[in-house]
Every structure is written in structure tokens, then in C-alpha cells.
Amino acid sequence: MSRDGVPEVTAAEIAAGLRAAIARGDYAPGDRLPGENALMDSHGVARMTARKALAQLQAEGLTVTRRGVGVFVRGFTPVIRNGIARLASRPWEAGTPIWEREARGRALDVDSITVDAGTGAPDDIARILALAPGAKVCRRDRRYVLDGKPVMLATSYLPAELACGSPITEPDPGPGGIYARLADLGRAPVHFREDLTARMPTPEQAGALQLEPGTPVVTIDRIAADANGHPVELNRMTLDAAAYVIRYDFDA
Amino acid sequence: MSRDGVPEVTAAEIAAGLRAAIARGDYAPGDRLPGENALMDSHGVARMTARKALAQLQAEGLTVTRRGVGVFVRGFTPVIRNGIARLASRPWEAGTPIWEREARGRALDVDSITVDAGTGAPDDIARILALAPGAKVCRRDRRYVLDGKPVMLATSYLPAELACGSPITEPDPGPGGIYARLADLGRAPVHFREDLTARMPTPEQAGALQLEPGTPVVTIDRIAADANGHPVELNRMTLDAAAYVIRYDFDA
DNA sequence: TAGTGGTCTAGACCACGTC
DNA sequence: ACGTGGTCTAGACCACTAC
């Protein structure tokens, strides 16, 4: 027994063995792994130790656990988000919805959309948009789903003085989206900056994106500026990192 | 007591309380949080329950724990990696080391560098470089450190037929780096593609980057192609997500 | 030495999913 | 009904850090 002193096997060792087995291909994506009870028997450890080993793999994003069912090897079949080509002038001038070009045959849809035509801007948003603190902004919230699973949350902020009274404050801003409407107003966005960060989700994000434990989120802050360099929109996106490959093409 | 039935407080509730307190600013970055013993006393729970609450916050990247010391609120002071401007033709034509322009006054250095002048390419590398499976490649491994902490691992793969016998197989390839040497060979890279993914680190990555638990890594696969569209380099980078903001600027 | 976090055991009960 | 994972208690010992 391991009652006193060093235990024969530790949770980390059990996890390492399973990790190696997955890496070797002994378990393919979707395959079932030994569960808590199986590890207790095979390694002679207490339940909490077996749990900890499995929790470690889950935290690494290697496995998913389904309560009452078992532990399974996780796959990774992402969608490509092309960060630059999709923003070439053509898409919104031609009236093509930007997101329709993404999913490569898979069904990426807007699940829900809410519009707020004028709220006080949070401080960081106001600063990014070069507005006075507390200035009013128009806010558009969307959630995108792929094959029924939410994969991205997006919130756009536009200066209220710019967006109010235009179709931008409508749930459906018309062909070409809000960028086409900004162009109608003579404020077509021509320069973009995307700042990416990755971290573990807040519980709210994890719930809204139905994330498996061990899945990070990528936050993209996209600032769109008009020809004079004035910011016209901030789009703050939160992506399920397990669902996306984010691609940028550019020339020297 | 909670011996039978529903406990008065759960680990998730304790975690939620601390999370909210951090969000409110009751605890600033660097501040010490109540530890295991404090939570056991204040909430009347067992050690494992207090531990689980603290482990949850750690997994979210909100806290760092230092053994024998305590639990502390984590900060976020990243460096900006500019993914496009840094690759404009000027830097390597003028002989400026690419990475010197990154850290905005902070000390970003190459910690270690190893070069392998000819090994068989892994299948995925060979495919990306449009080589026959198992074809030889030149491999350059670097680790970058910022203020003494490693923040990025980078491995470049170049076709051996291209790199062999050139300064590319030297640890120091000379002014302008390997891109300048590729230009010398008439194979200057002019088109780039960066594919980004984020996930939790493997134990090896966590060790090499000295990552705190709860920190994801961002993997960037950068493919450089010459004027004829032939791939000349694949640079696979692994970034500490807590150390970087990754920025792309581009025009419509 | 005292306090901190890290790990493990042993046993109990709960909640979910399948059969 | 049964097996699965999810949660908690209670107590023990270890390892690291500061004083």
C-alpha cells in the first residue's frame, strides 16, 4: 500500500501514460479511454487520484468527459477564418455576406443578434474608438454557430453619432452588412487592425460558447478606420479556439 | 454540517466569490488571495474543497500559486508582435534583425539556438513545404526570452537542397537573417501565410516556456513563399499566450 | 519552526445516461 | 437497475518558503 510514504503510482504518471498512448495512436479521436473505476482497478489508486489524472488530460484539451458515459479522446476539425482576404473591398461592395465565405461547405450561421442603438461606452471601448469617456455607442451583438454549435461571439461598437438613424441600428443592415452602410455614409472602412490574445474563458464565455473544459478562447479586437484614419468600428470577437484556424495572408 | 445532502457552499461558489472579488478590483494584480487554510476556516469546508476552488481560478488563468507562499492575482503585461509590418521588405534588406523591433524597450533575446543541417522531414512538414515524404530539411530551433522568461519557441524548416551549404545552416546566418540569405540565393520570400491556433500546452511546451498553469499557447505556422509561389520556409512558432498580443494591420 | 501549497487514501452520496 | 462521472468529507503526510 501507499498509505505511508511515496505512492507506487501518481496521478501525473497515470496521466502521462494515457497521454503517451493517445500520442502513439493507441486511442484515436473519439475512442473511449479507461474511466475512473478502470484506473482505480488497474493502478490500485483511490478514486480522487484516478480523477485527477483524467482531469489533467481534460485540462490539456486532450479528452472530453461525458457524465454517465465515459471519457473520450478529443478531435480537432477547425474552420479556417481568413483574416485578410475576407476583408478585401469586393465582399461588401458586391453584397456578399462576409461570413458566408468562411466555413468551406459547413453551415455557419448567425444564431442570435441583438442591437442596442445607444449606450454609454465602457472606458476601454471609448478609448479605442477615440471617443470621450462615456460617449454613446451603438452596439451589435451576434453569436455564430457552426453545425449547431456556437463558435464565436462578436460585439461591434460604433460611435452613436455615426450609426444612429442608419440601417446599422437594424438587426439586418441590408446587403453587404454594416461596412456597406458605412460606405453609404461616406465613411467606408479602409484600414484594419486586428489584435489577438488567447486565454482561458470566463465562465460566461464558456457557457455561451458551450466550451469543453480545456478549451481556450481567442479574442480578436478588430478596429476599422476610414480613409481619414478615424475609427468607425470596434468588433470584439471571442472564438472557440478548438473550432478555428485563423489565417492571415500577406506579401512582403 | 454538510455530511449528508447538499453542502452549504460548493467549490464552484467559493471560486465564483473570489472571481467576482477580483473582477471588482477588491484584489489587484499581485495581491494575495485567501489560501487553502483561510478558505477552510471562512467557509467551513474540507481542504480538498478549498483546493478545488483555488485550482479552478488557476485553471482560468486568474491566479498563480506559489508553493509555500500563497495564491496571488495574476497580471497581464504582454508584448505586441506585429505580424505584418515587421515582414515588410525593409527589415531584412537593411540588415535589421527582425525581432529587435518587437519588444518596445523590453529585452527580447534569443536564449538558445540549434541548427540541424539535414534531417528527414515529418510528414506534415513535408506536405506543407511541397516536398516528397521524408525529404531532407534544414531545421533551426530557437527560444526567445523576454526579461529573462522564455516567451516563444520557434522552429524553422527549409528544404535541404535550398539551405545546405549556405549560411542558413550556421547558428548566425548573418545580417538580415535567413530571409536575407534566401534573397542572396534568388529565392527571396515575398508571400507569407500565417495560420494561428490556440490550445493548452503539452507538458513539454509548458516546461520549455515555464508556463503558469492556466496559460494557453498560440501556435503560428508561417509559410514563406518565393516569387514563383514555391514554399521556401516553414516557421512553426509556439508563443506563451500570456506574453503576447498578436497584431495584424492591413488595408481593404 | 511554522505556515503554505501539493498529494494521496478511504468512503460516502449525488446526478446523469443507458439499458 | 446499473455504471458512469461529479462532489464532498476527514485525516494524513510531503515539500517548499520564510523567519
Short description:
Two copies of one chain form a homodimer. By secondary structure, chain A is of the alpha+beta class. Chain A has eight helices and eleven strands.
Main sheet characteristics of chain A: 6 strands, antiparallel
The secondary-structure element order of chain A is HEHHEEEHEHEEHHEHEEE
Instruction: Give unreliable regions of chain A as ranges.
Output: 1-7, 87-103
- The CATH architecture name of the largest domain in chain A reads 3-Layer(aba) Sandwich
* Average of the residue pLDDT scores of chain A: 85
Task: Give the termini separation of chain A.
Answer: 64 Å
What is the beta-strand fraction of chain A? 25-35%
In total, how many domains does the architecture of chain A comprise? 2
At the third CATH level, what is the topology name of the largest domain in chain A? Chorismate lyase
